[in-house]
Automatic annotation (TrEMBL):
Its main location: membrane. One of its GO terms (molecular function) is ATP binding. The lineage of its organism: Bacteria, Bacillati, Cyanobacteriota, Cyanophyceae, Nostocales. PROSITE patterns: ABC_TM1F (PS50929), ABC_TRANSPORTER_1 (PS00211), ABC_TRANSPORTER_2 (PS50893). Residues 25-317 form the ABC transmembrane type-1 domain. SMART domains: AAA (SM00382). Keywords: ATP-binding, Membrane, Nucleotide-binding, Transmembrane, Transmembrane helix. InterPro entries: AAA+_ATPase, ABC1_TM_dom, ABC1_TM_sf, ABC_transporter-like_ATP-bd, ABC_transporter-like_CS, P-loop_NTPase, Type_1_exporter. It holds the Pfam family ABC_tran. The chain crosses the membrane at residues 167-190, 251-276. Residues 351-585 form the ABC transporter domain. This is ABC transporter ATP-binding protein. It is a multi-pass membrane protein. It is found in: Cell membrane.
């Protein structure tokens, strides 16, 4: 992730480079709108000048001597200024808001796409709630800033610069008195904001934590209810929400502390202008119109500083969010694509694990110098105790993780050299932890095979022994399965997952505890289909229930990250080792 010390604004500007023209247009419209908004006080000053000085007024110098004509010209000019101000405001608002929507959309999509490219271990080290907070809350915070905060910031600096220059040009003798408080205000404001930045970083982090808590609790609501843990979870939400509230309270305390001092300094500048300017009018060194303009406009010079802390507050909130988003975008992709393609039509389906060693982060080796060769079209079974590395083996084949030593080959090609999409397209994986998306049964079976016809979906469901229960659902294949498939039983979810893998029609099929949640009758039916399912495929079946893989061409028994036994079912029973012991326990002959 990006360091907190790195300022996120340059990074954001580099990211927004394709929108440079739109940004320049928005900035120019905002500046023009602010300048035109400052025109009415100036026009009022000219009007006073016309009424008081008449034929010697400012407008009279342009050859218009009649005071009534001067006022008519001034009125027309006022209409033009107001019309242009409205037009520039419309243009600025439209440009900024469209920019906010475009940048928000692109940033969210790019961040999500980058997130998808990260290795599986990245997600195991981070909570879903925090990642969702970045993709939603932080990017929305940037949108809010572009909608309103950016315009306010430009408006502030344009207003101060324009009014300050007007003072220097019209009354240089007293301009310095009006501007006297400005350096102190700026110093105080930026000092406060530098202290606010880390506090807002903490606020955003706390927002991610509470988002994570809420996401976990909603996902695990059935567990909470079954253990009557509502009060416990309510207390945890209360505690984390209270920490978020207190972190916000610290930021708020510092944010509002400067307001009273700021107002006093502004009052000082206003009073000095009022008094000294009036004195120069009485002495005849300053016109009444100019004095009226200055008294009126001094508020536009100094009062915006009362909003500076709020503007900077919005800015710091946005930058804290940008820092988190850019930190995610800067996360390096540790499992890159290879350069070689692997067309499914040409794959020979031979898989080899060559002396591989692998350990999860900060843990001991789970696979140790393991070698395994799977011939084309063979069905092999892998068994072993929990934690022996069975599922890790297939996750390495899919390159969810990278081996530390050794090679994994498909058709004698190192999978590191293969395009990841090609590699994963040729593998169908049925995980023991089945995930179904919120949608219909048909949509879940066709996931990854999006152009499949309805007949093909039904055929895959029949092979997976899923068709019979599907047609009994309220809307059959159009029945909504609910989030994560919660409206279906575990066995039904597994059969839909098997149908999904069958429909993909991959050259290599991985069944990772694919029948662990089905009853014996359904398992027997699926086993009958396996002969057809595994035809012309290289199949890796991982199972605790040995009956699932007893007819495999070869069965490998794993223990402590290595292969201890291998052979067909009868051969392993004859060895009277680990496999035979497991078989006796499961068959009731122990």
């Amino acid at each position: 992730m990006a360091t907190r010390s790195a300022h996120p604004l340059p990074h954001l500007l580099r990211y927004a480079k394709p929108y440079q023209l739109q940004i320049c247009g928005a900035v120019l419209c905002s500046i023009l709108r602010t300048l035109l908004d400052l025109a009415p006080p100036f026009l009022i000053g000219i009007a006073v000048n016309v009424v008081v000085e008449r034929k010697t007024s400012l407008i009279a110098r342009f050859g218009i001597q009649n005071p009534l004509t001067q006022l008519l010209v001034l009125s027309m000019l006022t209409i033009a200024v107001w019309g242009l101000e409205s037009l520039s405001q419309y243009a600025a608002d439209k440009l900024w808001r469209n920019l906010a929507q475009a940048l928000q959309h692109e940033l969210r999509v790019d961040t999500y796409n980058h997130l998808q490219s990260l290795e599986l271990g990245y997600f195991e080290d981070r909570s879903t709630g925090i990642l969702l907070s970045i993709l939603n809350d932080d990017i929305n915070q940037l949108e809010r800033f572009l909608n309103f905060g950016a315009q306010n910031l430009i408006n502030f600096f344009t207003r101060v610069f324009a009014v300050g220059m007007s003072f220097l040009l019209l009354a240089p003798g007293i301009a310095w008195m009006a501007m006297l408080p400005i350096p102190f205000i700026l110093w105080g404001t930026f000092t406060f904001q530098s202290r606010l930045a880390p506090r807002y970083d903490t606020v955003r982090d706390r927002a991610g934590i509470i988002s994570d808590r809420l996401a976990n609790n909603i996902s695990g609501i059935a567990t909470i209810k079954s253990f009557t843990a509502e009060a416990y979870e309510s207390d945890r939400v209360y505690q984390e929400s209270d920490v978020y509230r207190r972190s916000n309270k610290k930021a708020i305390a510092l944010s509002v502390a400067f307001q009273p001092v700021l107002r006093f300094l502004i009052l000082l500048g206003f009073v000095l202008t009022l008094y000294l300017g009036g004195r120069e009018v009485l002495q005849g060194s300053l016109s009444v119109g100019t004095y009226g303009f200055m008294v009126f406009i001094v508020q536009d010079l100094l009062w915006p500083f009362t909003e500076l802390s709020e503007i900077m507050d919005e800015y710091q909130r946005a930058m804290a969010s940008v820092r988190r988003v850019m930190g995610l975008l800067d996360t390096a992709i540790s499992i890159p694509h290879g350069n070689n393609s692997l067309p499914i039509a040409t794959i020979a389906r031979q898989v080899q694990f060559d002396n591989i060693t692998f350990a999860y982060s900060d843990r001991n080796d789970i696979l140790k110098n393991l070698s395994l060769q799977i011939p084309r079209g063979a069905t092999i079974g892998i068994v072993g105790a929990t934690g022996s590395g069975k599922s890790t083996l297939v996750k390495l084949l899919l390159r969810f993780y990278e081996v530390q030593n050794g090679r994994i080959l498909i058709d004698d090609i190192n999978i590191r050299d293969l395009n990841l999409f090609d590699l994963r397209r040729c593998i169908g994986w049925v995980s023991q932890d089945v995930f179904l998306f919120h949608g219909t049964v048909a949509e879940n079976i066709a996931y990854g095979s999006f152009d499949a016809s309805h007949d093909e979906i039904i055929h895959a469901a029949k092979l997976a022994e899923a068709h019979e229960f599907i047609v009994q659902l309220p809307l059959q294949y159009d029945t909504i399965v609910g989030e994560r498939g919660q409206k279906l039983s575990g066995g039904q979810r597994q059969r839909i997952a098997i149908a999904r893998a069958i429909l993909k029609d991959p050259p290599i099929l991985i069944l990772d505890e694919a029948t662990s949640a089905v009853d014996n009758e359904t398992e027997a039916a699926i086993q009958k289909s396996l002969a057809m399912i595994t035809q012309n495929r290289t199949t890796i079946a991982i199972a605790h229930r040995l009956s699932t893989i007893r007819h495999s061409h070869c069965i490998y028994v794993m223990n402590d990250g290595q292969i201890f036994e291998q052979g067909q079912h009868e051969e392993l029973l004859a060895l009277n080792g680990i496999y035979a012991s497991l078989w006796r326990v499961q068959s009731g002959t122990h």
